From TrEMBL:
This is ZMYM2-like/QRICH1 C-terminal domain-containing protein. Keywords: DNA recombination, Isopeptide bond, Phosphoprotein, Ubl conjugation. Residues 36-195 form the ZMYM2-like/QRICH1 C-terminal domain. The keyword NAD does not apply. GO terms for molecular function: DNA binding.
Amino acid sequence: MNSKDERFKQIHTVLDNLSQKLHKNGVRASKNQAHVVSIAEEDKLWSSGVMGCHSQLALQNAVFFLCGILLCLQGGEEHRNLKVTQFVIDEVENPWLPLERIKRLTYTENGSKNRSGGMHQVHLDNKVVDHYANSSIGNRCLVFLVELYISKLPESTFEKELFYCRPVPVKHIKDENPWYYDTPVGHNILKTKLKVMFEAAGLDAGGILNHSLRATGVTRMYNKGVLEKIIIERSGHLSVSGVRSYERTTCLQQKLVSDVLTSSSTYDPVEVKDESNGSGGKENMSDVTDVPVSDEVGDVMKSFNFEAVKGCTFNFNFSK
């Protein structure tokens, strides 16, 4: 029902009044938000062996988890439609240390919920994310894990344009054999992958969805003070309002606001002192270069208190 349609105007008015009445009585619609994965929960996934590079499933879990957070992928369709050709790893100049080389992973989005590629988006570029390697975190580095994962895929996955493939049982793996078949992971398995990972690590899986990874990525950037422009570039949102629905304030931020508002200290301007002349920030007129002036001008100047004046220009016009 279009609220602008005169035929439904009366119905909308009744519903609007009822909604306002319920709101005043404390009855309101609740908004379901995806769970944000904490650092402690992530550490548990690593330490429990659910994620890692020691087995086919652990490696795939780690790639799935980090791609979701660091590339801010959509929870369902974008993960299912991933292709190995969307990832390119090369070596480039380190932005921080120009004399060094660093590995960089470039992910190019082929399509998503926000960028479906219809006629209304014909001039909209695909999302492209550059993620740089971080050797200090070892096997938790996304670039390292994706490179290892791709090296364990059969060559036919490039032809079939797959990414998440079914793991080969350990007993069938030999030295140089691929770790995965060239068949995609089932839709239902991928749909509940993060929830199953939480359960395997002994974590509370209530409210856990694959979309939690995207929400986690945006929230972590927001809490670290990353500019919204950069967040939007990585998440692929088309508007600021869209990305702000993912930005969750932390308890620490709320505590800081409480402390600011309840502080008993009052604003006390700090007196700026000029240490160069020891005059407490007040210009000592005796230090100013003597300028010859007439007796008449001198008498006028003596009538002013110049102790509190500094860096000003005065124009005096004396007429007889």
